[in-house]
Amino acid sequence: MSTIASLRSGAPITPIISFDQANLGPTNFTYFSERPSLNANFSGPLIVGNQTEWFNPHAYALQPVGYLGSAPRNSIIGPGSVGFDVSLMKTTKMKKLGESGSLQIRADAFNVLNHANFGLPNASIFSSASGVYSTTAGVISTQINSARQWQFSAKVIF
Q1: This prediction's pTM
Q2: pLDDT, the chain, mean
């Protein structure tokens, strides 16, 4: 029997706005994503922690035109992941295959706990200069692992 357990903390995410609010120009915008400002009137937890709202976008505000936002880089931590795989293997000697002949039977189970691991949330807080929050800000729309999977195999060694 063998097992592999993997536990990972969440990856850092930087909140961004998806347009040029600071008037840096299109050349700079392709290499540099602008960040919003922190909302001084926000109170409550930043990380909500569910799939439809991983973080609260109201913690951020749109900065004035021509200014860079004050939100820190990597200020949001995404969801972590859990993985647990198990393998069972049995090797039996088979004299008909020669002196070192054997048959190996194996069963593997991936994601044995059937735990859903989600991708990163959408980090784009504002999608237009109107200051309206993006409807998908903080929403997780991807899953990074598959459901429980079983694999059975046999190997003849001679």
Answers
A1: 0.77
A2: 90
First-to-last alpha carbon distance for the chain, in angstroms, is 23
CB 40 within 8 A of CB 13: no
Domain chopping of the chain, boundaries: 2-85+120-145
- Taking phi over 0 as left and psi of -120 to 50 as alpha, with beta for the rest, 111 belongs to left
Chain centre to alpha carbon of residue 30:
24
Q: Determine the 3-state secondary structure of 29 from DSSP.
A: helix
- How does pLDDT run across 131-146, given as a tens digit for each residue? 899 999 999 999 998 8
The amino acid present at 82, given as its one-letter code, is V
| Distance between CA atoms of residues 62 and 27, nearest Å | 21
Nearest-CA neighbor of 148 among 116, 119, 107? 116
Distance, in Å, from the CA atom of 29 to the CA atom of 154, rounded to the nearest integer, reads 55
